[in-house]
Amino acid sequence: MTRGKFITLEGGEGAGKSTQVRLLKEALQRQGLEVVITREPGGSIGAEEIRNLLVTGEPGRWDGMTEALLNFAARRDHFAKTIWPALDEGKWVISDRYADSTIAYQGYGHGLDMTALYQLWDIAIDGFRPDLTFVLDLPVEVGLERALGRGDGEDRYEKMATQFHHDLRAGFLKIAAKETDRCCVIDATRSIEDIQADMQTALCRRFEITLS
C-alpha cells in the first residue's frame, strides 16, 4: 500500500488554520481520498492532556525549555498513535501545527538554542517531516485580534508580549525560506476562498494531482 501524504498548516495566532484544514480535507475527499485531520499540541488522548497544560494559564506558567519538552512529549504520542498509523494505511493526514511550531515558538519566540530543538525533533520522532507545509502569514495585530475574539480559554500564548508574536512571525518566515522544497507561504490577509484556492494550487503542483 502506498503511504499517505502528510500536510501541515503553520502560522501565528489567528491565522485561520482550522478553517483551511477543514476546507482542504473536503477538497481531498471529493477526489476519493481518505483524510484524517488532527492538531498540535494534541491529536491523541495523551497529547490532548498535555495540550491543556500548554495553552491555558498565565504566560509565565512554563519557561521555554519546559514548553519544548512538553510539546515533543505530546508530539511523540501524536505521531505514534495517530499520524504514522494513518499514513501507513494510505490515508492523507492534515495537521493544524506540527514540529515547525516548536521551532518558531520556543526557538525564535523564546530564544532557545536551535540545535537543541532540532536534536529533540530527531530524538522524539526521528526527524520526520511533512510532505508539504503551508505557512499562513498575516500581520501580528490582525492575528491577535482574531485570536482573542475566540474566547475559548486557550489564550496563554495570545497573552504573551507583542514582541514575542513579531519574533514568532519572523521565525515562521525564516523556516519557510530555509525549506522551500516543502514550505509554501500563503498570504492569510485575504478571503477564506482566496487562501484555499492558493493552497489547492500549490498542493496540486506538489503532488501532481487535480482537485475540483
Please provide a written account of the structure.
The structure is a single chain. The chain has a five-stranded parallel beta sheet with strand order 2-3-1-4-5, with helices on both faces. Helix 1 crosses helix 8 (192-207) and helix 2 (45-55) packs antiparallel against helix 3. The chain has a single domain, classed as Rossmann fold (3-Layer(aba) Sandwich), CATH 3.40.50.300. It contains eight helices and five strands. It has helices at 17-29, 45-55, 64-88, 99-109, 114-125, 140-148, 162-178, 192-207, and strands at residues 6-11, 35-39, 92-96, 132-137, 183-187. With 212 residues, the protein is an alpha/beta fold. The model has no long low-confidence stretch (mean pLDDT 96). 54% of the residues lie in helices and 13% in strands. The protein starts with 5 loop residues before the first strand and ends in a 5-residue tail after the last helix.
